[in-house]
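Hey, I'm writing a tutorial for new members on how sequence and structure tokens pair up, and I'd like a real worked example in the thread rather than a made-up one. If someone can provide the structure for the chain below, I'll link this post from the tutorial.
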Amino acid sequence: MTETRSASKMTKVEKAAILLLSLGETDAAQVLRHLGPKEVQKVGMAMAGMRNVQREQVEQVMGEFVEIVGDQTSLGVGADGYIRKMLTQALGEDKAGNLIDRILLGGNTSGLDSLKWMEPRAVADVIRYEHPQIQAIVVAYLDPDQAGEVLSHFDHKVRLDIVLRVSSLNTVQPAALKELNQILEKQFSGSSNTSRAALGGVKRAADIMNFLDSSVEGQLMDAIRDIDEDLSMQIEDLMFVFDNLADVDDRGIQALLREVSSDILVLALKGADEGVKDKVFKNMSKRASELLRDDLEAKGPVRVSDVETAQKEILTIARRMAEAGEIVLGGKGGEEMV
């Protein structure tokens, strides 16, 4: 970040990076300990990219942070309620549930959580020779993009079996989770008397399918359709692909474009249909849209795999923003990317 920009024009990740840099190494490290692997990577990259941060920018970010905290809670008063409200707003009820329990009830980090810090190939190796139901529970527990990469390290027959099992999962007995954590040589976080954990389901399967390579996704969807046509239709209805961005409202597209680099956007639009291109051009300034059109025309032939990678990167950002409540996505039977 070389130019001087006001806090209102910074992304949330940039603000977080400035805040952490202002705290100092020790305090920043304590904050990072409470973030997940993806959040650490994003904030870390933003911190590494900070250049010539102006005093005015630091003051604006710190002032905004103090104002937000001041509006929501008095430090030390009603802390539990504040934590529950904050995490639920940030992560949603499902994702916040287990994290709230670990923080407020003093539980240890689940062995399953440790898998989220591992490379997908390593996770695949850990569960490769486990029972298929154990594999399905692990895949359903991971974030969809990581789960998709894990599945890519299995052959087609195993992928199909896992996705079908993920689709049929609704709840998992605490005893099963405890057994899984023992397999991972970790003690399960919380009491075995807790209620069943919500895990998997058709929506989870659709989210995972979104992150598979298009060729793998098509092959897997055909196999699911042969076994259970109704299930394949349910999964397709819940999937969200790049071309569906044309259905996102203008405010959502504008927010998304602020988070996407121009290089990635140009590459992604090389393989997009006209509806998506028109949606993007419509939500940019005249000057910006003209520059983007010029860049698209000047861009030579590109590999389909590179286009798909760029599109998946934008979709990852879009889904993250949707989970945070910043934009609204609507999934419906997507077409294959070109």
